[in-house]
Design goal:
Blueprint (H helix, E strand, L loop, with lengths): L19 E2 L13 H8 L12 H11 L6 E4 L1 H13 L4 E5 L3 H9 L5 E4 L10 H9 L4 E5 L11 H14 L2 E5 L13 H6 L3 E6 H4 L8 E4 L2 H10 L7 H12 L1 H24 L4 E3 L6 E6 L7 H8 L2 E2 L1 E2 L10 E5 L3 H11 L5
Parallel strand pairs: 1-11, 3-4, 3-5, 5-6, 6-7
Antiparallel strand pairs: 2-8, 7-8, 9-10, 10-13, 12-13
Length: 354
């Protein structure tokens, strides 16, 4: 067994209001129309318990995904579902494609199942080499977890590639767990939710938190085959979706397609602007991304975290990736925001070597 993926508890967010927070990757449009009204209306119901399971939200999500309600389980963000999967699946010899969201490895390690890494290599621009998946399967992997698109790298496994990976996992009796928290920002937003219905070994995680700019409420779901979701539903804690989150989630989904179409157009424009602007900064390398964030590599850091400290002194928070498994000193992630904030980010990053 190779060295397991280490625990990493570093996350972005939670900065003072006077800081431009580029450490997180949230929809720059803000919550969609109706979400704030739904939030205020739901406050009158906080003296009542929500239903133990959020059937109304799950039915609405199922309609949006084009699957049966039985195939969807809503929860308090995808993080709760990641920990639930670790607890219910108990996969023998899990593997995690790294770098990726640290809570995947944390959840598995918490269940006494420290995962082994499948490294995304810098020389491949942090793109997945499917031969490494084959290597994990040859080592009797019980589960493989990967991001699609992956954070923080911004790389994306295509539907064709993931179909081939999923088929190989099914033949080996291995779970293929796809974290699609950022899929709504990709053009086109080709999700593997239908694959999860057709292949009993595929499980897809989806986030409403990031897509609809509601991180303070925490809302996500899992899509999988009937028997998988049945097992998860039996094991999840009751009242995992509160009345406010459920009401806002339903409101977000009312006009989700139009809102997310506008979102993807904005992200495409602003990501290109940000990538071009940051690439002009001396000592800054920008990696290609299909998502609403960019991974950067900076040189000339005489001490770890120096670039992050430089940006924070200018009122901008960026995500320092040096403690994330699969990353190194000098790697950072920045979220794509509105033009005004992106201009500030480009301008102040340009002072890094000046």
């Amino acid at each position: 067994m190779t060295n397991p993926v280490p625990i990493d508890r570093a996350h972005g967010g939670d900065y003072p209001s006077d800081i431009i927070d580029c450490s997180v990757s949230i929809n720059p449009l803000g919550p969609p129309p109706g979400a704030i009204d739904a939030y205020r209306a739901a406050l009158t119901r906080i003296t009542s318990y929500p239903p133990p399971k959020s059937a109304a939200l799950e039915h609405r999500l199922a309609t949006w995904f084009g699957v049966k309600p039985r195939n969807v389980l809503a929860a308090n963000g995808t993080t709760q579902l990641i920990y639930l999967l670790a607890r219910v699946l108990e996969p023998a010899r899990p593997f995690v494609v790294v770098p990726t969201f640290s809570e995947i490895a944390n959840a598995l390690a918490g269940e006494g199942l420290p995962p082994e890494p499948i490294f995304l290599a810098p020389e491949r621009q942090y793109r997945l080499d499917s031969r490494h998946i084959d290597g994990a399967l040859a080592e009797h992997a019980g589960a493989i977890f990967l991001g699609r698109p992956n954070s923080p790298t911004g790389t994306m496994v295509t539907m064709l590639e993931i179909g081939e990976i999923a088929a190989r996992c099914e033949r080996r009796g291995c779970w293929c767990v796809l974290d699609e928290a950022f899929i709504d920002f990709v053009e086109p937003p080709d999700s593997a939710v239908q694959m999860a219905i057709q292949n009993p070994r595929v499980i897809v995680l989806r986030s409403l938190t990031k897509s609809f700019a509601i991180p303070g409420l925490r809302l996500g779901c899992v899509v999988a085959a009937d028997e998988v979701v049945d097992a998860l539903r039996d094991a999840i804690e009751p009242w995992s979706v509160n009345v406010v989150a459920e009401s806002v989630g339903l409101a977000c989904l009312e006009h989700a397609d139009e809102y997310l179409t506008r979102t993807r157009a904005l992200i495409a424009t602003e990501r290109a602007y940000l990538a071009e602007g940051l690439a002009r900064a001396a000592g800054v390398r920008v990696f290609s991304s299909v998502a609403n964030f960019l991974m950067l590599e900076v040189d000339a850091e005489t001490t770890p975290g120096q670039f992050g400290a430089h940006m924070l002194r200018h009122g901008i928070a960026v995500r320092d990736l040096r403690t994330m498994p699969g990353c190194k000193v000098g790697l950072y992630r920045v979220g794509v925001r509105n033009r005004q904030d992106n201009e500030r980010l480009v301008h102040d990053a340009g002072k890094w070597r000046n």
